[in-house]
Amino acid sequence: MQTTLDRPWTHRFEPGRDPEAPLLLLHGTGGDEADLLPLGRALSPGSALLSPRGPVSENGMPRFFRRLAEGVFDEADVRQRAEELAVFIAEARERYALAAPIAIGFSNGANIAAAVLLARPEALAGAALIRAMVPLSARQAEEERQQLAGKPVLLLSGAADPIVPAGNAAALARRLAAAGAAVEQETLPVGHGLTQADVALAQAWLRRIGKPSA
Asked: Is 27 a catalytic residue?
């Protein structure tokens, strides 16, 4: 079923057997609202799936926020889009009677999920961030301190990733931990693309935090 809420968020929603364990699926650059549905079903077959399309277009490719160059983000736009996504999540939760979701984000989708964790932590119950990098500067680090209050976060990085430097991914892990998140980071011997190893690790992480639904 494809619907659009009052805000400009084209999305897909698939009801699940367990409304207490929804997944928010956030695609990478060039993906759309259908892109990560198979991943969501594989990770947690009984979960409701909420999958929005990024509202920004870059040369015809959907994204969740603007960038100035590869790896250089428009931070004002990141903050605005994180706020808008948090509002979308709240509206979708009310419409579909959902608990706060766990975000499953890949690349650009992982970056906007990290931004929501830092800027609007109440919107998410946790997040699996696949190939994420620091989305926002640390100028508000004091305000972020302990705001995540033990929320589970999984970072899956690629040792051969040509887009996300290892130091940047490690900095994001430290930033989220400093904000109080229960962070687990795994670095795989892979590049930027999504792999079966990512799927297996995310499945195991969801089981550990008690969120999967069979």
From this structure: no
**Any idea of the CA torsion for 73, 85, 82, 185, to the nearest 10 degrees?**
-80
Which of 35, 161, 198, 213 is the catalytic position?
161
> Does the pLDDT of residue 133 top 60, yes or no?
yes
The residue from 107, 157, 198, 213 that is catalytic is 107
> One-letter amino acid identity for 177?
A
Q: Residues of the chain with pLDDT > 90: what percent?
A: 81
CA distance 183 to 114: 12
161 is catalytic: yes
Asked if 11 is an active-site residue, the reply is no
Q: What is the pTM of this model?
A: 0.93
Q: What is the pLDDT of residue 214?
A: 45
Provide the CATH number for the domain formed by 2-208 in this structure.
Answer: 3.40.50.1820
* Domain range annotation of the chain: 2-208
